[in-house]
Each structure stands twice: as C-alpha cells, then as structure tokens.
C-alpha cells in the first residue's frame, strides 16, 4: 500500500514536471516578433467535403474577457485531404461584424488558398492571420462564438468556436485535479 502511494506520487510529480517544463519552454520561446504558441486543450473540429478543420478556437481573451466591439484571433488548422487546392472564401457569423486577414479588411472574401494534401494554420508563423472584429457580446474563457467557414469547393460549415483558457487557468485546473486524486 505504502509503495503504491509512493509510485502514484512519483507519477504525479513526473506529469506535473512535464507540464511545467512544457509551459516554460513555450513561454520562453515567445518573442515580440514571433507568433505565440498556443497551449491548452484542443478546440472544436469539423469537416466539409475534402476540408477538415481542426483546433478551431478564439485566442486567449484579455483580462475580463472580450468586450463588445473588440477583436479576437481565430485559430484553425485547415487540412485539405483532396486532390485539388481549395480556397477559404468566407468567414462569417451573427456575433461579429468583420474578418481581417493579415490586417486587411476582408469581410466577403478572405481568399486563403489551401493546397491539395496540405494544412494551413491561421495562427502560425507561416500562415495567414484571421481576426474576428466587432464582436457584439462580452465573451469569457470557455464561452463560444458561432463561426461559418465557406470554401470554394468543399462548401460551408458552421461551428461554435470556443474562447481559449489562458495557460494559468489550464495549469490551475490540472493541479486541482491532481490534488483531488
């Protein structure tokens, strides 16, 4: 019994150490001129035609959440599993007024090309940056905003994009769960 508890404590410490080391590496790697690496649970997934959308989420909100009229980074990995390139031609929703692509207004056509058999990340250093502007309600972590993605070939799909939780909340929740075991 005593040995089992010792093994269990050692495992908890190893997992906690791994989480803390990962967090430190991620936070250390973020410079002013680099895109920050997002840490946290996976976002929503969806598919339409040959397009798979993975880890759909809004970036961590500022303290107090996203206020009415603010803007949020929309993160998504768009995976084209088809044999032909496709293009993201629209991003819309009832609770925001515009979409900015790489800081340029593009409310009707973001024109993001996804090559055949490739993935495009909207929040990585190589991919486009999608920002939902003019959010018309206050949003807190873990709340969601409906977003419709429209592709030239694949079609249209609507998802509820959750607002990511800041890293600290994710670590706090992990520590509480470990203490409860």
UniProtKB/TrEMBL annotation:
Regions crossing the membrane: none
Pfam families in UniProt: PCuAC
PROSITE patterns listed in its UniProt record: PROKAR_LIPOPROTEIN
UniProt-recorded name of the protein: Copper(I)-binding protein
Organism in which the protein naturally occurs: Blastococcus mobilis
